[in-house]
Design the sequence.
């Protein structure tokens, strides 16, 4: 042995937060990295920033806040002073009234009225005394947490808009991940008796954070910086490229993997000849369903069937440029009103003033949750702009004639669906990949079919990069929890910090 370090060749599918985090960390350590991204223009995936006539749109809304100091440090490393500190401001619109979110007890009592408030408190007390045992659905889980009355007011309509299905069909897992740590009593106590901010950010309930960091020009600025750093370190990012095959090579071959890809045409469809790349490792943040179809040799029939049954929710952002008669400061407003189709309204200037180039104007993003190919998705851009304008006026957020222009952004496969069977399907696919496809690593929201935030996706990529550089599975990325923390398998209640307070993942306990 001459001690020469062997350069790892890594192909990364997808240039979203997970893919670009892995790409930057690996290329920085000398790995030969190639990133394949279907979008011909934007990196960042759902965390990209779309630009139209100088206005910038955040697709989905991205607060940069994490309980992981390591994630926070990477954001600082990538953007530094380009990260603004912004106040959190969110409200719920229901029954023609606005409710601050997190809940302000006095305001909620006034808006609901004495009788309805009493009913909500009684319903909450009943839920605490007589909870549903072993809740399986979103409805049961949230009703246990808040009471059925508040579930119906503040959760049911909005959640069913987002997911396009009854709350009785949605797995309790999703509620447990997204609303973990928050209860009605916590929200009321936080409103009535505000505490000093904890020095340790890991002790803050994520749903209640009141400030966050945000890139000056939107979240895509972060991922453009990560892409630039990756290229500067020798990595390659191929835009407008769709993966057509991920082939495991036989034992003894010169490489473990070959990845085939093609350029996409103006319509976004594959065109031209297949280009092949050899790799020692493949990282995929692509939707699990799509990856399963591309694998060679093929997955067994049971795993392919499981992949085909994985479901995704899509959405549209209709960005309206407005000369506002009425201004509001919210980052976004959750629309719980059943009489309109819009689910959420973003105010892009409240994320960052630099998102809106003219201070006399405003730009609001109306989010419509749908399934690819349904009536909303298939509507023309003009029809969607007209719909959004009517609904924004009906909500009282603009006056007639305020809307000057609009632009539509379609986002397929925005959210993995947590139905009753998703966990079984994911486990079937995961077992096959871990057993028979060594060197194939799943990361991120769609790659792992986990509805998570970008900090969680980043942590899965960070640990995967360490595993690849070490040449051994030191960390189990499936044990990254919803707050971008990492827990050792079999000991999910504990984590380790070093003397600086940084969260330090423990290694997987060896079974040998």
Sequence:
């Amino acid at each position: 042995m001459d001690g020469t370090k062997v350069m790892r060749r890594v192909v990364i599918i997808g240039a979203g937060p997970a893919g670009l985090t892995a790409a930057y960390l690996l290329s920085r350590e000398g790995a030969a990295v190639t990133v394949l991204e279907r979008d011909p223009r934007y990196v960042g995936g759902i965390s990209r920033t779309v630009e139209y006539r100088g206005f910038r749109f955040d697709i989905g809304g991205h607060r940069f806040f994490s309980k992981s100091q390591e994630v926070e440090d990477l954001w600082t490393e990538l953007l530094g002073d380009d990260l603004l500190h912004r106040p959190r401001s969110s409200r719920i619109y229901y029954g023609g009234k606005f409710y601050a979110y997190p809940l302000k007890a006095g305001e909620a009592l006034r808006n609901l009225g004495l009788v309805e408030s009493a009913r909500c408190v009684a319903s909450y007390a009943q839920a605490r005394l007589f909870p549903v045992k072993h809740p399986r659905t979103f409805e049961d889980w949230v009703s246990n947490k808040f009471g059925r009355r508040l579930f119906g007011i503040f959760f049911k309509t909005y959640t069913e808009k987002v997911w396009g299905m009854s709350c009785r069909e949605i797995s309790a897992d999703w509620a447990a991940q997204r609303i973990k740590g928050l209860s009605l009593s916590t929200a009321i106590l936080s409103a009535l008796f505000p505490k000093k901010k904890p020095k340790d950010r890991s002790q803050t309930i994520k749903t209640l954070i009141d400030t966050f960091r945000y890139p000056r020009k939107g979240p895509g600025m972060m991922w453009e910086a990560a892409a630039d750093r990756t290229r500067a370190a020798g990595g390659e990012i191929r835009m407008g490229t769709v993966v057509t095959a991920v082939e495991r090579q036989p034992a003894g071959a010169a490489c473990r993997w070959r990845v085939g890809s093609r350029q996409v045409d103006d319509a976004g469809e594959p065109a031209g000849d297949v280009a092949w790349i050899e790799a020692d490792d493949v990282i995929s943040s692509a939707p699990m369903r799509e990856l399963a179809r591309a694998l060679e040799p093929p997955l067994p029939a049971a795993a392919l069937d499981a992949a085909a049954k994985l479901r995704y929710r899509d959405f549209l952002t209709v960005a309206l440029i407005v000369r506002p008669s009425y201004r509001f400061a919210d980052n976004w407003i959750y629309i719980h009103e059943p009489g309109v189709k819009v689910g959420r309204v973003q105010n892009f200037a409240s994320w960052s003033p630099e998102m809106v180039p003219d201070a006399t104007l405003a730009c609001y993003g109306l989010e419509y949750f749908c399934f690819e190919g349904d009536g909303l998705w298939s509507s023309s851009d003009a029809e969607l702009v007209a719909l959004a304008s009517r609904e924004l006026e009906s909500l009282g957020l603009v006056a007639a004639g305020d809307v000057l222009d609009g632009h539509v952004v379609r986002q397929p496969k925005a959210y993995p669906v947590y139905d009753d069977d998703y966990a079984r399907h994911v486990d079937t696919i995961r077992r096959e990949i871990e057993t028979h496809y060594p060197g194939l690593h799943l990361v991120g929201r769609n790659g792992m079919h986990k509805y998570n935030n970008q900090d969680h996706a980043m942590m899965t990529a960070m640990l995967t990069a360490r595993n690849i550089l070490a040449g051994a599975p030191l960390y189990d990325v499936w044990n990254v929890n919803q707050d971008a923390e990492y827990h050792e398998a079999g000991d999910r209640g504990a984590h380790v910090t070093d003397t600086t307070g940084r969260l330090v993942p423990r290694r997987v306990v060896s079974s040998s």
About this structure: The mean pLDDT is 87. The CA atoms of residues 17 and 454 lie 6 Å apart. The chain has three domains: 9-48+219-308+420-504, 101-196, 312-416. The first helix runs from residue 17 to 28.
